[in-house]
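Provenance

Sequences were taken from public entries as deposited. Structures were produced by running a predictor on each sequence independently, with no templates supplied. The record for VWFA domain-containing protein from Streptomyces populi is shown for reference.
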Amino acid sequence: MQILPFYLLCDESGSMIGEPIDAINGALPDLHHEISTNPTVADKTRFCLIGFSDTATVLQPLVDLSDIDSVPALAAGGLTSYGDAFRTLLRCVEADVAVLKAEGHEVYRPVVFFLSDGIPTDPDWDQAYKEVTQSRFCPKIIAFGIGEAQESTIARVANFRAFMQKDSSVSPAQALREFASSLTRSIVRSAGSIGEDGGNGFTLAVDDTVPGFSLVSLDKL
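Predicted structure for VWFA domain-containing protein:
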């Protein structure tokens, strides 16, 4: 079977406390329901949730969402640090792909939805990021920035698509609800498209426009 692994790498820094983290936690059950009740998507998709602030924690190991009752909630606290998040991501991807292949699956290039609302406090996070993007798995990274996140940093993180919260008139909670909706749509559409070209690949269906966000050009990197 062809499997598409999705990872949600989400900032849990202290500035997420309140409406921002509530918005994501409120949307995760919808994502769980959308995927777990859609046999076509559930069969072809595996989902992993990693929260990070000073350190990173695997809140939900890679799983078929139809196999669990709920998705764990994020809990904000600490400073914004990227290095441990990318190191944890790489360890997860390496282990997950090995298990999936051992089970006889064909594994597509993993996809990461990265979400941050702050500025990284660890200046050496670039090395951990390079280890992810230069690995043989090199996941496709779609990065979303809200709040105090810097456009230049979000653009550096993304290697497929980058989005920034448009302006202060859109609250972080509103922006995050739109992000979560976009994430769900992308997973459902992408997983549903696997094998449509004769089993040789899939179409990564990520929205070009997300309400409350602006698309960031990656050409300037």
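The chain has a mean pLDDT of 92.
The chain has one domain: 2-216.
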